[in-house]
Amino acid sequence: MSDEVIRKRLLIDGDGAGDDRRINVLLKSFVKWCHSAAPEEGFTQYQRMLGTLAQCEFSMGKTLLVYDMNLREMENYEKIYTDIEQSITAAHEKIAECKKEILRAKRIRKNRQEYDALAKVIQQHPDRHETLKQLEALDKELQQLSRIKENVEDKLELRKKQFHVLLSTIHELQQTLENDEKSENDESQDSPMENGQMSIVAFSLYGETEETQPVVNKQVELADNVLRLTEERYLPVPYRTPGGGHPPGPVEQPECCVWASEFPHFLLNRVL
Amino acid sequence: MSVFSQSFSPCGRFLAASNNYGEIAVFSLSSSLSPEATGINQKPILTFTAHEGPIFALLSTDAHLLSAGNGEISAWSWAELAKRNPKAVWIRRPQYKSSLEIPEINDMIVNCRDNSLAVGGGDNNIHIMDLETGVFKSVLQGHTDYIHCLSMREREGELLSGGEDGAVRIWDCRTGQSVHRLEVYKYEECARPQYGKWISCLTTDSDWMLCGGGPSLSLWHLRSLSPTSIFPLSGCQRQAMFYQDLILSVGEGHFLSHCLLGGDVKSLIPCSPPSLNTVALNTNSTEHRVLTVGGSSDQIDVFTNLSYKAFSLSF
Predict the structure, then answer these.
(1) Residues of chain B found within 8 Å of residue A117, distances taken between Cβ atoms
(2) Does A107 touch chain B (CB under 8 A)?
(3) By CA distance, what is B245's nearest residue in A?
(4) What is the average per-residue pLDDT within B223-241?
(5) What whole-number distance in Å separates Cα of residue B103 and Cα of residue B82?
(6) What are the chain B neighbours of A119 within 8 Å (beta carbons)?
(7) End-to-end CA distance of chain B
(8) DSSP assignment of chain B
């Protein structure tokens, strides 16, 4: 216990200068004053003691004020401390918020860049509308051309058939001539009956062999003419573009057809 | 010495790195990242010889570290490695056709869907092994030259492989058939004939794919199989990865490249090894989020902030 007291006293005023010494001096002077006899000296001593007491009181007052001040300072610091703590936590939250924000922004940026990269690739390909238009135009052209092709093919078929008719007629004529020759050479035999209208007509017409030969020659000449003329007229013209040249209109009634169907009559007319 | 590959532990506190001598070094990230770290903390806590030849691929599963070297795959338990006890849990070898020459394994990848491991290497084939039973289920054949790298397309369940023959093949994991084949060197904008046609780095995030090597590093859109951006990086890239909105890539040259998806190179961060082989990002831990790069030196650079190198670990 006495250690405590000594420690405290040393802490407060260890060096001997200051208030402690003043109080000790006051006590000593008080004791001396009590024991002193002379009144004047006693009075001065008394005054001196009062002065010292005043000084001590003053010092004590100062210390009390300092103590108060320290207490208030402490409070102030406590307040500032709590304020700073709050702002630290607020700043932490803001940082976390900003970090989330930055992650979001990075994701958005990544998406935008991916979009840009894809857009770059897509731009290299031609526009869809244009391609569709081109496709449509090509389709139309294709249809037109196929129509023309069909027309030409039909025409070709028709001509082929006509030529076929013509040639078969001529062939029959030749056969008839041969038959006539044969029947000329061999009067006992009947000339073989030909199928076909032409041969029957021919047979009925050309009873006399002497007269038939020049007529038959004329027939052959006529057939040749017909063939030549049809060739000139109906030989397939090299197809020109739809813009110019002979337009493939509706199929015209070819005269060859007429000729072929009226051939025997024509001959009849010429012969009779 | 060259560091060929790295892998972070599932807890995120350790880094395993392998080199060309067949050694694996385990570093403790928590001690090297702590404020009181000294030179000792930048050395590995454990170094051991795992294989006879160089180890080109390291992979971490939930509890094991898989290493591939000398044609075989060994598994080590992370818990044991943390306690400095290197003992292999299992060692398996795929069936190779020829028994004379043992082809090296260049890359491994885990298919989480059916818990299988795909390894690709020098015999031009990809072997699929079931992780639970250890049986090699199937072989994906198709490449005409050895396989450099593998990548997994999680969403569609497809495996991508890039090889020396310049082809990137996309395999369907269930049927084992090659779905697509991209010959990158045939595209004029990517090809760099002076370097060759081999593909050494491949990575994907389901919609997009990065591939590079002989041809320039390029970003491909997988749905349309068309290249969208070409990155003007000199040198051949050996590993690339997607990170947030950036593309990180390492290769020849002593820098780590940051590129944007549009094809611009944002920055080149210098590193200590003169040529880099591997880059790894620790996604398993939030307080040790670091990026590490390793290459043709015994220093492994650690980046705490992506923009600059913080310190180096020493193998």
Answers:
(1) 219, 221, 228-229, 261-263
(2) yes
(3) A110
(4) 90
(5) 31
(6) none
(7) 9
(8) --EEEEEE-TTSSEEEEEETTSEEEEEEHHHHHSTT--GGGGS-SEEEE--SS-EEEEEE-SSEEEEEETTEEEEEEHHHHHTT---EEEEE----S-SSS-PPEEEEEEETTTTEEEEEETTSEEEEEETTT--EEEEEE--SS-EEEEEEETTTTEEEEEETTSEEEEEETTT--EEEEEEGGGSTTT--TTT-S-EEEEEE-SSEEEEEESSPPEEEETTTTEEEEE---SS-EEEEEEETTEEEEEEBBSEEEEEETTS-EEEEEE-SSSBEEEEEE--S-STT--EEEEESSSEEEEESBTTB--EEEE-
Cβ distance of B260 and A113 shorter than 8 Å: yes
Q: A9 touching B, CB under 8 A?
A: no
In tens, the pLDDT along A36-77 reads 777 777 788 888 888 888 988 998 899 899 999 999 999 999
A28 touches chain B (CB under 8 A): no
Which residues does chain B have within 8 Å of residue A109's beta carbon, measured at their own beta carbons?
Answer: 245
A17 touches chain B (CB under 8 A): no
Looking at the predicted complex, does its ipTM rise above 0.90? no
**What per-residue confidence (pLDDT) applies to A230?**
63
Please write the tens of the pLDDT for every residue from B172-200: 988 888 999 989 889 888 888 898 889 99
Percent of chain A with pLDDT over 90: 37
CA dihedral A142, A148, A154, A157 (to 10 degrees): -90
In angstroms, the separation between the Cα of residue B197 and the nearest Cα of chain A is: 23
* pLDDT value of residue A234: 59
Contact B111, B131 (CB under 8 A): no
Domain spans of chain A? 1-84, 129-181
Distance CA B161, CA B120 (A): 8
- What's the gap in Å between the CA of A101 and the closest CA on chain B? 13
| Digit-coded pLDDT (tens) for A185-211 | 887 655 444 444 454 554 444 444 455
| CB distance B111 to B159 below 8 Å | yes
Q: Do B244 and A116 touch (CB under 8 A)?
A: no
At how many degrees (to 10) do helices A2-13 and A19-35 cross? 100
Is the pLDDT at A99 greater than 90, yes or no?
yes
pTM of the model: 0.66
Residue A120: list chain B partners with CB under 8 A. Answer: 228-229
Q: Which two tokens stand for residue A5?
A: 């007291």
Judge contact between B298 and B280, C-beta under 8 A. no
What is the nearest CA distance from A87 to chain B, expressed in angstroms?
24
Size of interface A-B (CB pairs under 8 A): 35
- Of A53-57, A162-166, A214-218, B94-98, the range with the highest mean pLDDT is A162-166
β-sheet with B226-230: strand ranges across: B199-204, B208-213, B218-221, B226-230
Are the C-beta atoms of residues B245 and A109 closer than 8 Å to each other? yes
Higher pLDDT pick, A23 / A138? A138
Which positions in chain A touch B263 (Cβ < 8 Å)?
A: 117
